[in-house]
Specification:
This protein is of the alpha/beta class. The protein contains 17 helices and eleven strands. The protein has helices at about 15-20, 25-35, 35-45, 55-70, 95-100, 105-115, 130-145, 170-175, 225-235, 235-240, 275-280, 315-320, 340-350, 360-375, 380-395, 400-415, 420-425, and strands at about 80-85, 120-125, 155-160, 220, 250-260, 265-270, 290-295, 305, 330-335, 440-445, 445-450. It binds flavin mononucleotide (FMN) and iron/sulfur cluster (SF4). The site of iron/sulfur cluster (SF4) has 13 residues, from helix 14 and helix 16.
Length: about 475
């Protein structure tokens, strides 16, 4: 990989610059092919969504297109496209890096998706605090609309600084003017501005059946996924298949932060060993230090030091019982208290849980309390059993994936680092190093800035006064 594929350097200045660097070829190609063949190209490319779950993108688009086509009633079903730029996963900065480098490729991908599924409108959701990215996207949309390149309106929607804003149904709620409370039904079945009941949390008019009942299937794709689509249409599915592995074709934009020499964001071919990604993107750990563990965000089990040769691919991470997530890697060196890391992850998920499902909110809270006790050296075996019980039941009746994350990440740390649990039970917890979960505010020139206010965020989503 000589030329960057998504992280244009220097950043693309304007629409003419985008075109001069090969941009817009994907959109023109899609229009030549037509909607059905465009979806086929995406299916053939093997592209998997980069938002975390790795769901096949072409298949998602096809199901939305089929659902609209199958509307036998009054044709009331409308389709929408939503680009997920919430980037709430700790240890990730890749979507913001992609938007900063080339927002035109993102909007181009949105336009291709809207064309392919027959959407009547598209939205790009970013956090209100992502001011640079929102401005870059708005300018790109204006320029592309003025050049007659957008068939449908594309709108930037600014959202709150809550983790669930990035959960796809929480994102739909925000676009509809509600808080990001996840719904029961996925967007490709029950989408934006639907007029059939979705048994969601809200009793607003959108949840009430009318004579023009429509579920409005909606494509939700991550920023990186859609930017990659623009490249696939321009260069062809074979080009994409030549990169990466059989089950994980292409490249991924990885973020490497934590105990590394130079935190950063970089493109790597899928299948590259994690150890090499940490070296190339983050400069490795400083001299004299060794890696104790790596957290692939807060959605997948911890990777231990003996697993660092795992290929960065969906199947590679699956083979060690973890997941690649959004390829955001938090490197933890040998000075780390893993109990403290488990507690930070648990508190983050407890605070961010919305409370619609009691086992999730109460369970994450109870696990956090138990870990606090362990870290204080005052826990008993009963407290550890309570933690284990809550980790087993935290997913009961869950509406979204957040409590599964609690179960998988916290559970994996406690079992991989059981020696720390035992030492804490014996009254000697590992020394604290004031670990802060890397919710990234900025990442540029090898410097990562973390959001210190997250530590003050309360379970009701308010913030305690700063000391
Ligand atoms: C709690 C939670 C938070 C999430 N946050 C994000 C996020 O910030 N950005 C993102 O793209 N996907 C996020 N996701 C995944 C989305 O729900 C969804 O799967 C993704 O946007 C689909 O896009 P893709 O198919 O292109 O990967 C989150 C999921 C969960 C359960
Ligand atoms: S599982 Fe947790 S975060 Fe998800 S909707 Fe239920 S309470 Fe909210």
């Amino acid at each position: 990989m000589d030329e960057p594929i998504l992280l244009a350097d220097p950043p693309v200045a304007d629409l003419a610059d985008h075109e001069a660097r090969g941009g817009l070829a994907g959109l023109h190609r899609a229009r030549e092919l037509g909607p059905g063949a465009t979806i086929q190209e995406v299916i053939l490319s093997g592209l998997r969504g980069r938002g975390g779950a790795g769901f096949p993108t072409g298949r998602k688009w096809q199901s939305v297109r089929d659902a609209v086509a199958a509307d036998e009633g009054d044709g009331a079903n409308r389709a929408f496209v939503v680009c997920n730029g919430a980037e709430g996963e700790p240890a990730t900065f890749k979507d913001r890096a992609i938007i900063r480098a080339n927002p035109y490729a993102v909007v181009e991908g949105v336009a291709i998706a809207a064309f392919a599924v027959g959407a009547e409108r598209a939205f790009i959701g970013v956090k209100e605090r992502f001011e640079t990215e929102a401005r870059r996207l708005a300018t790109a949309i204006d320029e592309m609309a003025a050049a007659g390149l957008l068939d449908v309106p594309v709108q930037v929607v600014l959202g709150p600084d809550h983790y669930l804003f990035g959960e796809e149904t929480g994102l739909l709620q925000v676009i509809e003017g509600e808080p990001p409370m996840p719904r029961n039904v996925p967007p490709y079945i029950h989408g934006l501005f639907a007029t059939v009941p979705q048994a969601g949390w809200s009793a607003s008019p959108g949840g009430v059946a009318t004579e023009f009942a429509a579920s409005n299937p909606t494509v939700v794709n991550n920023v990186e996924t859609l930017a990659t689509v623009s490249r696939i249409l321009a260069r062809g599915p074979e080009w994409h298949r030549r990169l990466g592995t059989e089950r994980s074709p292409g490249i991924v934009v990885a973020t490497v932060v934590g105990d590394v020499v130079r935190p950063g964001v970089g493109e790597v071919e899928l299948g590259t060993p994690l150890r090499e990604v940490i070296e190339r993107v983050g400069g490795g750990v400083p001299p004299g230090r060794t890696i104790k563990a790596v957290l692939p965000g807060v959605a997948n089990p911890v990777v231990t030091a003996d697993q660092l040769d795992v290929p960065c691919s969906y199947e590679g991470f699956e083979s060690i019982g973890s997941g690649m997530g959004a390829a955001g890697f938090l490197v933890l060196d040998d000075t780390t208290s893993m109990l403290e890391v488990a507690r930070a992850v648990s508190r983050f998920l407890y605070v961010e849980s919305c409370g619609q499902c009691p086992a999730c909110k109460l369970g994450c809270g109870a696990v956090t309390d138990g870990l606090d006790l362990l870290l204080s050296g005052a826990a008993t075996t009963d407290d550890v059993e309570t933690v284990a019980y809550r980790l087993r039941t935290v997913t009961d009746g869950n509406r979204c994936y957040l409590p599964v994350q609690e179960q998988r990440v916290v559970g994996s740390i406690l079992s991989a680092f059981a020696d720390e649990v035992n030492e804490a039970l014996a009254g000697s917890p590992p020394p604290s190093r004031g670990f802060l979960l890397p919710k990234l505010l900025d990442l540029a020139d090898g410097v990562a800035t973390y959001d210190g206010s997250q530590a003050r965020k309360q379970p009701d989503w308010t913030y305690a006064e700063a000391d």
